[in-house]
Structures are given as C-alpha cells and as structure tokens.
Amino acid sequence: MHPHDPEVTAAITALDLFAGLPASALDEVTARARVRTLGRGARMFDQGEPVERAHVLLSGAIRIAQAGSDGGQVVLRFIGPGEIFGSVAIFTDHLYPADGIAMVGSTEASWARADWLDLIERYPRIALNLITIVGRRLAELQDRVREMATQRAERRIANTLLRLARQAGRATGAGTEIGFPLRRKDIADISGTTLFTVSRTLNDWRRQGLIADDRRALTLVSMAGIGRIALG
Amino acid sequence: MHPHDPEVTAAITALDLFAGLPASALDEVTARARVRTLGRGARMFDQGEPVERAHVLLSGAIRIAQAGSDGGQVVLRFIGPGEIFGSVAIFTDHLYPADGIAMVGSTEASWARADWLDLIERYPRIALNLITIVGRRLAELQDRVREMATQRAERRIANTLLRLARQAGRATGAGTEIGFPLRRKDIADISGTTLFTVSRTLNDWRRQGLIADDRRALTLVSMAGIGRIALG
DNA sequence: CGTCTGCTTGAGTAATGTCAAATCTAGTGG
DNA sequence: CCACTAGATTTGACATTACTCAAGCAGACG
C-alpha cells in the first residue's frame, strides 16, 4: 500500500494523534508516512534496537512484549488499529523498550525520526495529543501495578479482560468480543500469571457461562459477571 | 515563601521541565507560580479530586499513593525535589489518580490549569520536556510491571532500592544513602509485597552488611551486592 | 496422516501472605 | 529525668495461592 492510497489517507487523518490539525498539516503528515504490511509473527521492531521511526497501526494487531535479562516475559500492551506504538522512546533513551510482533497480518504507518520531530515542532498540537495518549497509558499502567500488587490472579485476569474489552471490544449477539487473537499465554503475560492459571480460570468461567471462547475470539458473555469478579 | 524569593526562582528555573526556555519565559513561569509549604503528613491533593493545578516539588518528599476500591494500596512513586507530580491528568481525565502526601515538610510550586495550558501553548518546548519526563516514567512503570510479574519478592525489593538510589541517592562515606524517609510499609507498597517480607529481607541484608539502616535513612552499603540480588 | 502448536488437567511444593504478639523508638508531658 | 503512649518494627507459626512440572489431548495445516 502506498501512503497516497485513499484508504490509508483516511485512516491516518482519523487518528487521535492528529486530532485538531488543519487539512494542510494532515496532507503533509500523510505525504511523509511510510506504509508497510507484515505477516503474522513478523517483528515490527526488536527490544534494544535504536528507535528510528514513530509507528501507528492502521490494521491488524501488535503484541508489545518485554523480556527481562532473565527469561521472564511480559506483554506491556496489545496495539489495535488507530493506536500509536514504539514511539515514545524517541524522546527518552532512543531504544525500543520491547519487541513489537504482528499477531496477525498488520499494516502500519511510520515516520522517520527527523520528520516526526519536524512535524511536531511545526504543529505543537501533535505534542499535546501525544501527552494525552501517553498520559492515559501511564494511568493504565498505574492501575496494573496496583492490581498486581494487591489482587489475586483470578481478579487480575478479570480486570485484564475488561480492559481489553474497553480497548478493542465489539458488541456481538453473544456479548462483547475482544478484537485480539489471544492465546492463553498472551493473557497470562499481560495479567502477570501463568498460562496454566489462565486456562483453569477461563474454563471455570466458560462453565459458568460468563465467557465464550470459540478458539477464534474470546467473547465476554456477561460483562457484569466478570465485573463482579474484578471487584472481588 | 513567595514566588519572587530568589531561592525559589533559582529552583524553578533549574527544573528539567523548563530546560531550553529563554530567560523571559522563565520569568513568566516564575511569576505565575504559587508556592506553598506543607508539614509532614499534609495532603497535597486527594485521589479522585479534580486537577486544578500542575505541581513541582521544590524541597521535601511526597508519597504518591493509589488506593483501590477495596483496601489495597500501592505507592506509585516517591517525588523528590525538582520533580513534577500530579500534573499529567490535566491532559486526560482531569482527576488525580492518587493521593499526594508530604512525607516530611515540603515546599511545592504550582500553576493554575489555565496558566499552565497557556504557558505550554506559547512555549511548546515545555510540552516536549513533559513528553520526555512522562516517557521516562512510563518506561519505569513498564519495568515495574515486568518485575512484579516475573520476579520474587526479594529481587523486587532489590530492584526497588536500586531505583530509589538512582532517583534520590546521595553518596556518603558509608555508601549510597536514599533521600526519602522510608518506612517498611513504604518499601512494601512500592515493591508489591508486605511490610513483613520487607522487614525480614532488609534484616537479612543488614546482617550481611549490604545495607545500613539507622532509622533516619537507608544506606546501600554495597550497591554491587544488592545488584547481584536484583539480577537473580 | 503426521507434526506442530496450543490447551487442559493433575499432583506436589515453595514462596509469601496472614495473623498474633512481643519489642523497640521517638516523642510527649508530668 | 522518667513514665507513658503511639507508631513502627521484628519475629514466629500457619495457611494458601498459584507456580512448577509432567502428561495427554485437540485442532490446524501441510
């Protein structure tokens, strides 16, 4: 896909990141974007690599996973369409803090570091939008830290599912379907538990009719029920 | 203290947040600041309250603590002199995400929301500085989430102490002294464990000569030793 | 049909949380 | 100066969550 593809242009101009920009600025933003499509399992970038570009996801899903010097791994976030990713380190230590891996075939737009800084300088509104986005992620991480410190695995899993539903939920006949192709391990790595505990917990919930799980997508049948578990 | 107090002026103009601003801008920033001193235990703001001001700590120490709807509590961060706090929510949901409590007598500067937004609009460099600061805190929280998910209590405590030493450490004859008046409960609430586990762990380390703890301040006698524990 | 990846289930165990009680320290006021 | 108090810390005993490891199963895909 080319940056000037009308579909791509529409997607870029609709991003929260560029809200409030005049049409002329959006043209410029679009013109400088590089658009790239990767297959399932491909790496958008690797942890520790220098950050040369700012990224936005146009379609698909990305897993942002951080590995420790020991084996331990966590998922910091799943990225859905319209979300920015792997871009904040341009302002800090210039190294990607995590791997970015396509969970399904995905298309991203990205801007070279120099273009990005230039655009922000000329359109400071982008900086404000970025502060808002990063501020929201900060608040979400703060919630996760509190949950991991004070809640047991089952509640954390419930809170995780509710967050994912908020982020990428689609209402369907059966309930709210989460728009990421999640394996047990993914849910474990973002909830701070093991895939075994996730498996047991989700099976309990399925038996109780709280969720449905057709191995294609996870659906929260009873948000209220999951919500009750999340509250303790 | 008055904003025009020369000591206060110097402290404000030295802040990372205002790095790169021309002198005229710094004058304006200083002129609009409100300076306030609070005693030990006083609340700078309460969780859930609307954010009307942006804050910077000039001296002292603040505990930023978030409580869940259940009793659970975590410390999100300790704030030392020169650090911004309780200011990001101006751009998001306009509510303080946590309590801000003076751990010792503390002096802060703050700006009314409208002044703050006006200053940022006229000096976009402030926005860039803010992105850098928030980006670093985001990275730190990501590290903490990974630690809580993958490391056991002892290692998390070691990592916590190393982080605090980096943030507020002073080299002394005996080692690196942490510049916050920390109780066991504080260390527990930021490490994601209990004050009992912290007590046992710190006593072990003291017996091994890794730390000293004269109930006035905590000193890391052997950063290398603590570092080895942090690595596993 | 075989292989690979992911999921489920069971059994055993260790880390650490919970609770109770004793001890210590700093500060207060007689 | 000393007794008293409140808050913080230490230590012990115990309970339990959820991690670890092993084994078998299911579905997808070539």
UniProtKB/TrEMBL annotation, chains A, B:
Cyclic nucleotide-binding domain mapped to chain residues: 17-93
Q: Does the keyword Transcription apply?
A: yes
What UniProt keywords are attached to this protein's entry?
A: DNA-binding, Transcription, Transcription regulation
Q: Mind listing the GO molecular function terms for this protein?
A: DNA binding; DNA-binding transcription factor activity
Quote any Pfam family the record assigns: cNMP_binding
Q: Where's the HTH crp-type domain? A: 151-224
Top-level taxon of origin: Bacteria
Task: Spell out the GO cellular component terms annotated for this protein, sorted alphabetically and separated by semicolons.
Answer: cytosol
Q: Does the keyword Nucleus apply?
A: no
User: PANTHER family recorded for this chain?
Assistant: CRP FAMILY TRANSCRIPTIONAL REGULATORY PROTEIN (PTHR24567), LISTERIOLYSIN REGULATORY PROTEIN (PTHR24567:SF28)
Q: What is this protein called?
A: CRP-like cAMP-binding protein
Task: Give the originating organism.
Answer: Hephaestia caeni
**UniProt lineage:** Bacteria, Pseudomonadati, Pseudomonadota, Alphaproteobacteria, Sphingomonadales
